[in-house]
Amino acid sequence: MQTDNNVKEMVKEKYSEIAKQSKTENETSCCGAGCGCATVDYAVMAENYATLEGYFADADLGLGCGLPTEYANIKKGDTVVDLGSGAGNDAFVARHLTGEDGRVIGIDMTDTMIELARNNAAKLKLQNVEFRLGDIENIPLGNNKADVVVSNCVLNLVPDKRKVFSEIYRILKPSGRFTISDIVLEGQLPEAIVKEAEMYAGCVSGAVQKSTYLDFITDNGFKNVVINKEKQIIIPDEILRKYLDEKQLAEFKNSGLGIFSITVSAEKPKDCGCGPTCCN
């Protein structure tokens, strides 16, 4: 059985490799380096950033499963924190929205990604975007610092998701908000395809049930939880047929069960009390 530390080291290693690849290489290998399914020549989760203001192609590694900044209500002058910032894709879009008076802080636990993001920020000559090495289960930021937190397809890779939401609550200012795109499950996948499906849909071995994910949010004190967007991750039939016969395939496709990407937002209450994770 893998420990949390084992999982983190595996993720670090995988994303260090991904940082060295192009967007095209990552998309055609379905979940980045080492997945061994490059014969399927399209991405199932990535959203198109190209039309967004602030988009910088060098920072787009094709690793997201949504467009969290689209729903984050980022305003001029806001302080935005991007958890699992990678090469800086969402951070640079957020920077366009905050303007010169705002601030964007990207957090990532992979040295190679931090270096890549900092190089991209230097190319853009941005003075109010920074990238910090850190674990999002223990965010390297003080209490009540962020107006907005965004994250894109990262929490599914983190062992202690409840702790991450606790940390998001801690760093947000009262009335602050988050918008996160992530991967969740609805129902139990057929045992025959669990391993392959998880590998194909972004290496989502850490994804949890949608209801559990939403409980993590409300249990940490967030209010006004809204699912802005939801879509099913469609696993190609050529993969499913390796594990299911035609009857099983039809039953699975008609069941409504499977892997989903969601974009969810919530707010920290204005009057949040003075508990150890809130207003101290």
Compute the number of helices: 9
In terms of quaternary structure, what is this?
A: single chain
Q: Strands across the major sheet, in which order?
A: 3-2-1-4-5-7-6
Name the structural class.
alpha/beta
Give the termini separation: 38 Å
CA-based shape: globular
Number of strands: 7
CATH superfamily: Vaccinia Virus protein VP39
Task: Set out the fold topology.
Layout: H1 4-18, H2 23-28, E1 79-83, H3 89-98, E2 103-108, H4 111-124, E3 129-133, E4 146-152, H5 161-171, E5 172-186, H6 194-200, H7 210-219, E6 223-232, H8 237-240, H9 246-255, E7 258-267
Parallel strand pairs: 1-2, 1-4, 2-3, 4-5
Antiparallel strand pairs: 5-7, 6-7
Helix pairs in contact: 5-7
Walk me through this protein's architecture.
By secondary structure, this protein is α/β, with parallel strands linked by helices. The chain has one domain: Vaccinia Virus protein VP39 (Rossmann fold, 3-Layer(aba) Sandwich). Helix content is 31%, strand content 21%. The protein contains nine helices and seven strands. Helix 3 (89-98) links the parallel strand 1 and strand 2 (103-108). It is globular and about 60 Å long.
At a glance:
The chain has 280 residues and is of the alpha/beta class.
Keyword list:
alpha/beta; seven-stranded mixed beta sheet; 9 helices; 7 strands
